[in-house]
Amino acid sequence: MAWHPLERWERPQPFGLEALAMDQKGYRRGSFQSSTSDEDMLEIAGASLDFSMADDDPPLDREMGGFTSYNGGGMNGASKMMDFLEEPLPGVGTYEDFNTIDWVREKSRDRDRHREITSKSKESTWALIHSVSDAFSGWLLMLFIGLLAGSLAGLIDISAHWMTDLKEGVCLAGFWFNHEHCCWKSNTTFTDRDKCPEWMSWSQLIIGHGEGAFAYILNYFMYVIWALLFSLLAVLLVKGFAPYACGSGIPEIKTILSGFIIRGYLGKWTLIIKTVTLVLAVSSGLSLGKEGPLVHVACCCGNILCHLFTKYRKNEAKRREVLSAAAAAGVSVAFGAPIGGVLFSLEEVSYYFPLKTLWRSFFAALVAAFTLRSINPFGNSRLVLFYVEFHMPWHLLELVPFILLGIFGGLWGAFFIRSNIAWCRRRKTTKLGKYPVLEVFVVTAITAILAFPNEYTRMSTSELISELFNDCGILDSSKLCEYVNDFNSTKGDDLPDRAAGPGVYTAMWQLALALIMKVFITIFTFGMKVPSGLFIPSMAVGAIAGRLLGVAMEQLAFYHHDWIIFSGWCSQGADCITPGLYAMVGAAACLGGVTRMTVSLVVIMFELTGGLEYIVPLMAAAMTSKWVADAIGREGIYDAHIRLNGYPFLEAKEEFSHKTLAMDVMRPRRNDPPLTVITQDSMTVEDIETIINETTYSGYPVVVSRESQRLVGFVLRRDLIISIENARKKQDGIVSTSIIYFTDHSPPLPPSSPSMLKLRSILDLSPFTVTDQTPMEIVVDIFRKLGLRQCLVTHNGKLLGIITKKDVLKHIAQLANQDPDSILFN
Questions:
Q1: In this predicted structure, what is the pLDDT of residue 189?
Q2: What parts of the sequence cross the membrane (predicted)?
Q3: How confident is the model at residue 87 (pLDDT cuts 50, 70, 90)?
Q4: So what's the pLDDT on residue 719?
Q5: How far lies 809's CA from each of 7, 556, 743, 822, in Å?
Q6: 649 near 429, Cβ under 8 Å?
Q7: Over the stretch 415-435, which tens digit does the pLDDT of each residue have?
Q8: Strands 790-795 and 798-804
Q9: pTM score > 0.85 for this model?
């Protein structure tokens, strides 16, 4: 049998992307062996998938349903098909699961649709109204996405805050109040505001008092029990109802935005389960955040709301523009940073980001932030728990410690990525992946047991970051603010640098222990089968390191203000060093080291703090961390997880600098059988059905004749199957010996011969072609920028072979000394 490059790639053990139909009995055999929580979800749930074609070539031999060619006035403006194909056939124009969309065709179809609406708008008032509503529908959709994403974020914030406090006690005035809200109406003094009589710890509730060893052990026990209950409920809901709801979701969203289709990943069940389990996972005290998953939640909102508008429901490329805007809204509500959200979508997740999408992303982010501000989940009129405002300027010499924090962030980011990927790979390849519930149970138990004795790990990570960012004032009762006060030198609200008291030294070693715990426990947490974001744990690590360095600098300046480095700007009794600023810079450095964000990261951080004057320290730290981390390993955490899972993602930021040619990559190779082709006017229905039955290719080049090999076009397998089946049912005289024509004009047939079947309109007359001498650098650029699935290779006008997206990815992997077989969904 002739070889064909679009052949389905059989693997010894097909990887199960079994998502929506997941085995209710439990994770399938190796289902949960994946690496990061986000990606592996692709290994679960019922539709066993052989990922061979996951890249570019649609597995058109599955069931009837998906691809059309460039029909009617689109790409090739082909002549009309026979009567039986004049009506759109069911399933035509859609894509199979786990396939790449054809960006060129989708954009062409949208242009045709727009031209038709524009031309009709001049004919009647109703058509004009339809044209206006079509133009306005994008903005209306953004409004809905912003409202829904903001509302869900507010719900998640309020619920997580309450359930986190539930681990430590309950409010007698109403069990639905968290600790802070419970004490609002209390008559306690400001210093005792956390000890109001309405709030009872579990030991007070059960044994009547909260002092002593037994009360401590009882509170400890209840803390661990609640943490285990929340995390187990989360993992069981994910496993039973929506396996795609685990992880942060950003690697998959990047892959989906690049044109890949994962049915159910942005569906309603995923949205419901992710929202519920995100609250449970955050409340359990695990070292994870809600910011990454909020991007997934917002994209689910965008995908579901797209079904309200035909323009977005029927066009996959237009839908991806909406998802880019939804990702911006997700970051907007996660950090209260609308501009940062837009830049995050542009810099980190989006593949195709036209100017129109930029404006709509900004509008969606604005509406989402406004909605969350209206809900006011934290009661402080801010969108995030750790909003701070610093008033003291920074000095040029402080850039040295800021850059040191950048180096720390880069080293931590590279260490985290390598360690986490190694652990996730181990999870995929060993029996560990078969026991996701047990893994979550063990990690939660270890986290809770280690966290309770230390007040900085016991509190929620957002509260910890808030405390670390905080600039100490006169009324602050935190240990971090227990300085030796000399009130004679106090001028207004600005407190001078003071000697650290015993509380500060206690806080320092507790924070050092918290830092060690967070550094290591996060490696094992990110990748489990619960929703887990990485922004907050990374920021916590950096904020702890930054606060430690900030306090050290503050004490150095206090005791040695006569040193030459301090003498010019830090006199005795002045407020020179702001430890909270160091925490903020450290948080940015560590987040940048892990994700490799730069511009969007700096904007998010200054939107968090409301201080434009700190942009330079943040930029210095973010760039330093990126340079240091890039020197150790080029990939950020999301790209590393994309590669670990073998998603068909062509990274647009990477340079292709090798000197290979198209003929080095195309199939068939030198010793392979010739390409399987279809001739334009000499094959019968039976011949084509035989090719379809004997091969599993996704499409076939059409040539003038086998001898000439001159290229006519490209036809997709699905279109052939649908067209032949419909012709047999609806057109008289179509039998196995009927000749199939892909030409404009067919020759006259003798009266005795069977009817012919003309399939010109399903033929793509303008497939992308390159010559065999085209440098691969150009070919890779074409695939990236046009979103192609395959490209035909010619020599002097004759068809030589074909290059698919799969071949490009394998070639890049080979040149990087990676296993090429790992590329397609291992």
A1: 54
A2: 136-156, 220-245, 266-288, 294-310, 322-346, 396-415, 435-452, 507-528, 534-553
A3: low
A4: 82
A5: 16, 54, 35, 10
A6: no
A7: 999 999 999 999 988 888 889
A8: antiparallel
A9: no
Most confident of the following: 6-10, 49-53, 161-165: 161-165
Residue/partner pairs of 653-657 with CB below 8 Å, 24 or more apart: 656/776, 656/777, 656/780, 656/781, 656/812, 657/777
Nearest to 429 by CA among 82, 22, 696, 35: 35
Strand-pairing partners, residue 802, are: 667, 792
Select from 244, 222, 804 the least CA-distant residue to 458: 222
Question: How many other C-beta atoms can be found within 10 angstroms of the C-beta atom of residue 172?
Answer: 15
- What pLDDT digit, counting tens, does each position of 141-165 carry? 999 999 999 999 999 999 998 999 8
The residue type of 97 is D
pLDDT of 505-534, one tens digit each? Answer: 899 999 999 999 999 999 999 989 999 999
Residue 228, judged by CB atoms within 10 A of its CB (0-12, 13-18, 19+), counts as: middle
Residues in contact with 814: Cβ distance below 8 Å, sequence separation at least 6, in sequence order: 820
- How does strand 739-741 pair with strand 757-758? parallel
State CA 236 to chain mean position distance: 22
Q: In this structure, are residues 269 and 303 in contact, taking their beta carbons and an 8 Å threshold?
A: no
Give pLDDT, residue 82.
43
> Domains (ranges, CATH) in the chain?
142-185+194-375 (1.10.3080.10), 396-485+494-634 (1.10.3080.10), 662-816 (3.10.580.20)
Instruction: Write out the H or E segment, with its range, that includes residue 488.
Output: none
Query: Cα separation of 195 and 183, whole Å?
Result: 8
Burial of 746 (0-12, 13-18, 19+ CB in 10 A): middle
Question: 653 exposed, middle or buried (CB, 10 Å; 0-12, 13-18, 19+)?
Answer: exposed
- pLDDT band at 812, cuts 50/70/90? confident
What interhelical angle do 399-429 and 535-559 show, nearest 10?
150
Count CA atoms closer than 13 A to 248's CA, side-chain side.
Answer: 30
Backbone angles phi, psi at 771, to 5 degrees: -85, 165
Give the containing element (helix H, strand E) for 418: helix 399-429
CA angle 11/15/21 to nearest 5° reads 140
Q: Tell me the per-residue pLDDT of 248-278, one tens digit each, with 9 for 90 and over.
A: 899 999 999 988 889 899 999 999 999 999 9
Residues 6+ apart with CB under 8 A from 491: none
Q: Is the Cβ–Cβ distance between 78 and 71 less than 8 Å? A: yes
User: How far is residue 687's CA from residue 694's CA, in Å, rounded to a whole number?
Assistant: 11
Asked if residue 200 has pLDDT above 90, the reply is no
Coil, strand or helix at 814: helix
